[in-house]
C-alpha cells in the first residue's frame, strides 16, 4: 500500500499519522486504528495532543474520519465509504 503512493495526497503530518496507524494495524488489527482514542497513545503522544494531531494533519475530525475510512478501504481494496 505504501508503494502505491496512496499517502501522497496528504500533508507530511497526516502521512506520519497514517503510516503509524498502518504499523499499528499490522501489529494489532483494525480495531486499533478505528478508535480516535488511539491518537492519545504511544507513539502518537509524541506527535501532539489528539486535537493538535487532528487539526495539523486532517483539518478537523471529519477529515480524520474520512482519511481512516480511505485507509481501511485501501487495506481491504473496497470503495471508500461516504462521510
UniProtKB/TrEMBL annotation:
GO terms for molecular function: catalytic activity; DNA binding. InterPro entries: EcoEI_R_C_dom (IPR013670). Residues 7-76 form the EcoEI R protein C-terminal domain. Pfam families: EcoEI_R_C (PF08463). GO terms for biological process: DNA modification. It comes from the Bacteria. This is Type I restriction-modification enzyme R subunit.
Amino acid at each position: 500500500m505504501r508503494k502505491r503512493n496512496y499517502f501522497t495526497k496528504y500533508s507530511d503530518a497526516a502521512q506520519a499519522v497514517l503510516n503509524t496507524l498502518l504499523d499499528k494495524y499490522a501489529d494489532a488489527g483494525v480495531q486499533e486504528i478505528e478508535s480516535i482514542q488511539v491518537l492519545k497513545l504511544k507513539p502518537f503522544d509524541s506527535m501532539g495532543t489528539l486535537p493538535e494531531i487532528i487539526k495539523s494533519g486532517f483539518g478537523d475530525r471529519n477529515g480524520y474520519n474520512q482519511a481512516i475510512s480511505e485507509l481501511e478501504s485501501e487495506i481491504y481494496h473496497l470503495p471508500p465509504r461516504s462521510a
